[in-house]
Write a structure and sequence with these properties.
The chain is an alpha+beta fold. Helix content is 37%, strand content 34%. The N and C termini lie far apart (41 Å).
């Protein structure tokens, strides 16, 4: 059974990595199928509002290197602090707006230290994905399986060349 974007649980097996961003709001899914890496992820407007989904399909053999690093987004953290300050100011006049702004502030500050995964090709960056810091182990397992898939593909091509020489 293939996971769908509507699944609410994390799906981590040898061929699939799926995660939710921002407290189950947005879904990112990466799947290895037939030597392709397919990634579906939302495009966020102002770091919060999803306004479309992007789909990318990459041949695993085109991937030269995958880098994973933790970064600190100062602007995102500062924006979270400013939104929290406005939430504090609004707490006396509008409780609903204040609670909403506190939640936004909390989300922005939590996501100020994402794990950035860069998929590098021969000539340029193919893809850059930001995932939440608590998903580091899941994405690491998926990348390990993706590298094994790439090694299997390379060994298949080399064995095909040696057995089918003219």
């Amino acid at each position: 059974m293939n996971p769908t974007l509507e699944d609410s649980e994390y799906v981590v097996d040898s061929k699939t990595f799926a995660m939710n961003l921002l407290l189950y709001w947005f879904r990112v899914q990466a799947v290895i199928t037939n030597h392709n890496l397919r990634i579906t992820m939302p495009t966020l407007l102002l770091l919060v509002v999803p306004y479309r989904r992007t789909h990318q399909k990459i041949l695993v053999k085109d991937i030269q290197k995958v880098e994973m690093q933790a970064v600190f987004m100062v602007k995102r953290c500062m924006l979270g602090i400013i939104v929290g300050y406005f939430a504090f100011l609004m707490s006396s006049s509008s409780l609903i707006l204040s609670v909403f702004l506190w939640c936004m502030s909390f989300i922005l500050i939590l996501n100020s230290r994402p794990v950035v995964v860069e998929v590098l090709g021969a000539k340029h960056d193919i893809l850059r994905i930001e995932v939440c810091f608590y998903e580091k182990s899941h994405i690491r397992d998926f990348l390990k399986n993706m590298n094994q898939e790439e090694d299997n593909l390379i060994s298949f091509h080399e064995s095909f060349k040696t057995t089918h020489v003219l």
